[in-house]
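lol ok so funny story. i was supposed to be doing the assay writeup but got distracted and ended up predicting the structure for this chain instead. priorities right. anyway since i did it might as well share w the group, maybe its usefull for someone
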Amino acid sequence: MTEHANRLEALRAELKARSLDGFVLPLTDEHMSEYVGAYAGRLAYITGFTGSAGNGVVLLDKAAVFIDGRYTIQAAAELDPALFEHHLFEKYPLLKWTADNVPEGGRVGYDPELTTVAWEKAARAAFETKNIELVALDSNPVDAVWHDQPSEPMAPALAHTTEHAGRDAADKRAEVAAALKEKRAEAAVITMLDSVAWAFNIRGTDVMNTPVTHAFALMHADETATLFINENKVSSELKQHLGNSVRVEPRTAFYDTLASLGAEGKRVLVDPTTNNAKVFKTLEDAGAKLVEGQDPCILPKARKNKTEQQGSRDAHIRDGAAVSEFLHWLSVEAPKGSVDELKAVDALWNFREKRGGLKDKSFDTISGAGPNGAIVHYRVSEKTNRPLKMNEIFLVDSGGQYLDGTTDITRTVIVGTPTDEMKDRFTRVLKGHIAIATARFPEGTAGMALDAMARRPLWDIGCDYDHGTGHGVGSFLAVHEGPQRIAKHGTAVPLEEGMILSNEPGYYREGAYGIRIENLIVVQKVQEKTERPIFEFENLTWVPIDRNLVDVNLLDSRELKWLNDYHARVFELIGPLVDDSTREWLQVQTAPLMAA
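and the output, tada:
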């Protein structure tokens, strides 16, 4: 039997021992995180699927993984079809598949620390017609069969000073306390790791590529707070940084403290989209009065202050110099046939490491040559590693975690000579990118109202892409940050001054190549006098766009001016920071393009 077949068999034996017909296996942790610590990688352990979004169900006779369109190719490559079906969740949702395949009167287990109350409600409704019982489990059955499961990380939590945070944590507590008083709540439960990090001005290394520490928190209407964190992670210096208004309690005391709040009849703010179901159940069972509302840290965290905005500008200039040096190196080495995807990843990291303030990657680099570039969230391995070949497209999506900002950039380059189709698709993606970069919009506009601007050039020829056009980005925090988005099915949250987003339209031809052009942008208020408040985007990313893939005839005069102005600014900002040979290359790459 294969490794995953053995694990699946062991899990099914555990389910039988618990009198269960199935178990729901989400890709998250108790903090509802997108990227999880190694100890929480249960879906990957059982199934082999390593994407950053997806869920699974294991029944006694079959199993399935549910993904979105970004992971279609990856799921097919990583999942053993003899063991796991895979479905697009919008076409065959997890709950419908489960109800279709569990016998009437069956019992399906779930871990309430890994789900939300909204999911619980939807699951019960989906199972009701077949009298399927949804069973909340006290312990996770995967943990019972994962004998070499990593332990929770114990790296120290670190202070994030106001030099980079731009605001004192006491000021943040006061803002949250004011929001609680408006809702007549006495405390708020904070479980998202980046919210905890933001609220207390702390960082950590507990999650790969995301500088957070494992902790829960309660924030109170009297401007005090309680941080639940393993005591071995807290130094005397950190306690001093936290101050006297923050109580530090063991992480294991979190749910008992929630029960105590309930016993006292406290009014507690809970977020149904970010707090796990166990939080709700613990409070409700103990008698708390629940006030449902958004995590009060989310919007203030998304609105970057002036210090954070400037930090992001500075980090992006250093990062742009590193990526430009990498692209110059690639232009020399790739045509020799000496570069493969893994070598490109290592080279890019080496160029970034030379720059100040770098602490980590912001995500695992996507290094896709030829057809691998068509896998939207491709992760190169020794097994899949492919050389960069002549006349093929190479897509590299990467980012750095700097003390003063988080970066995320995608560049698509041709090694050799592109086909006419490649140039057409690339230029249409570029047109969509420029449409977002130059957009102006009135106050109150949500990102979903802008999404079609980026897709229009592709829609004109019957093409599209299956990911959002833009996601929020943190400040030395999560590279994917809500609530702001630019997407077909994004949130209705208006874009506000200081919010940082990505601008990343793309195109993917399965089995051939992928194209994506990504810069980060920050929302700013238009300075000139207007009839009503109007916002626009300030560009943050400064790296040349491959002129060899641009069909100038497809650009109108306004778009061509944007590209030439952008490249002039790239040379102005990045030229002084790179070595002589890169500067010479950069001067050529940023020279004005002329209409035919």
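The first strand starts at residue 22 and ends at 26. The chain has three domains: 3-145, 158-299, 303-589.
back to the writeup now i swear
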